[in-house]
Amino acid sequence: MSYIYDLKHITMIKTESFTKELQELAKFTKVLSHPARLSILEYLAETKTCISGDISDYLPLSRSTVSQHLKELKEFGLIHGEIDGLKINYCLCHSKILKYKHLFDVFFKDMTSIDINCEVNCK
Question: Residue 24 in 3-state DSSP?
């Protein structure tokens, strides 16, 4: 007797076992899981404006690296990139960022409300 396993299907079933909020937070943290993406978001937040042109001029990263990370951030919706002639204007998507900040606040609120202190073992 032979069995054929569809790992993608098994993974999907396992993922669906978790709440929608946890699935969303997992996707969000995956997008944030690279320091280059965090650096890009941080830079856009610090400039408090849309950046026109090549953002790699402002970061210690190669153009191809910045381009790949901008693509990931844009596909998830954390930034907008609109073409303006030969340049692209990059901006933070505040509504999406606020949505995930709220999900994290709710998630960690439940954890920080616990009265048990295990600091001795957390170092």
Answer: helix
Q: Report the alpha-carbon distance of residue 66 to residue 40 in Å, rounded.
A: 8
Residue-level pLDDT at 118: 64
For the chain, what are the domain ranges? 17-110
- CATH T-level fold of 17-110: Arc Repressor Mutant, subunit A (1.10.10)
Q: Are 78 and 24 in contact (CB under 8 A)?
A: no
Reported as type and span, the H/E element at residue 80 is strand 79-84
The model's pLDDT over 45-97, given as tens digits with 9 standing for 90+, comes to: 998 888 877 788 888 888 888 989 999 999 999 999 887 777 888 999 999 99
Beta strand pairing status for 79-84 and 87-92? antiparallel
Q: How far apart are CA 19 and CA 11, in angstroms?
A: 15
Name the pTM for this structure.
0.76
